[in-house]
Amino acid sequence: MVIGVPKEIKNNENRVGLTPAGVAELRKHNHTVYVQATAGQGSGFQDAEYEEAGAVILPTIADVYNQAEMIVKVKEPIREEYSLIKEGQLLFTYFHFASSEDLTHAMIERKATCLAYETVERADRSLPLLIPMSEVAGRMAPQEGAKYLEKPLKGRGILLGGVPGVKPAHVLVLGGGIVGTQAAKVAAGLGAQVTVMDINLNRLRELDDIMPKNVVTQYSNEYNIREAIKTADLVVGAVLIPGAKAPHLITRDMLKTMRPGTVLVDVAVDQGGCIETCKPTTHEDPTFIIDDVVHYCVANMPGAVPYTSTLALTNATLPYVVKLANLGWQEACRKNDDLRLGLNVVNGEVVYKGVAEAWNLPLVSVESVMEAAHA
Questions:
Q1: Which residues, at least 6 apart from 76, have a Cβ–Cβ distance to it below 8 Å?
Q2: Who has the most CB within 10 Å: 70, 81, 146, 192?
Q3: Which residue positions are annotated as catalytic (predicted)?
Q4: 75 is annotated as contributing to ligand binding
Q5: Is 103 labelled as part of a ligand binding site?
């Protein structure tokens, strides 16, 4: 198969879809790999390293899309890329369709095969290609929140861990999954008083057992959230419903009950956000203020630490990339349930329930589109 790795062009996105080690592995299986010039530079990988591993370097993003049967990237295609995508071309990347109607309709129109990292799912319901970036974003959330709590950045002017004789900040984490767990761990390590909310009592029991004593758990409901945000200095939104929009746990009217300078970090923003007032921002312009509450809503948080993020992501994606290249997407998805669940849009049809429901589109069964593609 011919695999293409374009340079990411989303604002301040420095990750890359494949490392030189990944190229070498694909070349062992006799696949051809085209990499756009300087695609890996932001993550610390030079063109010469890709060439040494067996890749062919192409000068432009259009060249890569034109040559490749499968595109391996990190972030969803943005508007400038839509016209480059060919009918039937396999795109393996994060899509988060449920948060972008424009992207959904563009991929339907291009009749691409869109296999989304975030909905590849194992039998135990875990999301192997989302976990690494959830771990990075979760650990970054308190780090970014601590920065924006500083007064020059319009925060409350409170030190997350406090000092002897002065109480630490109160951090509220909404969601006890991968993101929430990592956020709580780092916030607690910095000395904050942390509350983790979730609707899964078994998960709350697990967290209660493994977390340090400055982390407490609480059942998540509207009443408890409304009470907790009145005294929270930093709120981390860490809610995920795979492939679907995140629910709004904090609504616009709740902002008025928060103290001026409270910081909201919505890690779920690329799935629509669990804070109603959040809208995607960039590393270049990461925050905005509504009702004196600081909103940090960067949709590609791990892009700020690309070396760590690229290695963590490609450790997880490469085995699937090799399967897709070796077998072709139809056969790979027939043989691998994880990959089949990653299919979101195929040949102009939506095949993932969460995406269809998000935009009120007809849902077609994966089996029928796979049969049509095979025919």
A1: 93, 94, 95, 96, 100, 103
A2: 192
A3: 96 (proton donor/acceptor), 270 (proton donor/acceptor)
A4: yes
A5: no
Across the range 343-353, mean pLDDT stands at 96
Encode pLDDT of 203-228 as tens digits. Answer: 999 999 999 999 999 999 999 999 99
Distance CA 208, CA 206 (A): 5
With b for 16 or more beta-carbon neighbours within 10 A and e for fewer, the 210-227 pattern comes to: ebeebbebeebeeeebee
Asked whether 295 and 273 are in contact (CB, 8 A), the reply is no
Instruction: Give the pLDDT score at 368.
Output: 87
Annotate 170-205 with b (16+ C-beta within 10 A) or e (fewer): bbbbbbbbbbbbbbbbbbbebebbbbbbbeeeebbe
Residue 91 among known ligand-binding residues: no
Please check whether the two domains, 2-119+306-374 and 134-299, share a CATH topology.
Answer: yes
Residues forming beta bridges with residue 92, ordered by sequence position:
72, 115
Q: Is 370 annotated as a binding residue?
A: no
- For the chain, the structural domain boundaries read 2-119+306-374, 134-299
Joined tokens for residue 56: 């062919």
From the list 294, 298, 215, the residue with the least C-alpha distance to 261 is 294
337 annotated ligand-binding residue: no
106-162 pLDDT, tens digit each: 999 999 999 999 999 999 999 999 999 999 999 999 999 999 999 999 999 999 999
Q: How confident is the model at residue 287 (pLDDT cuts 50, 70, 90)?
A: very high
| Percent residues over pLDDT 70 in the chain | 99
- Binding residue per annotation — 299? yes
368 annotated ligand binder: no
Question: What's the whole-number average pLDDT of the chain?
Answer: 96
Residues classed as catalytic: 96, 270
Question: Kind and range of the H or E element at 305?
Answer: none
Q: Which residues fall within 8 angstroms of residue 29, CB to CB, at 6 or more apart?
A: 322, 325, 326
Asked: is 2-119+306-374 a CATH 3.40.190.10 domain? The reply is no
What whole-number distance in Å separates Cα of residue 46 and Cα of residue 171?
40
Please say whether the dihedral angle defined by the alpha carbons of residues 50, 55, 56 and 62, taken in this order, is positive or negative.
negative
Calpha distance 137→135 (Å, rounded): 6
Higher pLDDT pick, 345 / 375: 345
Residue pair 69/33 in contact (Cβ under 8 Å)? The answer is no
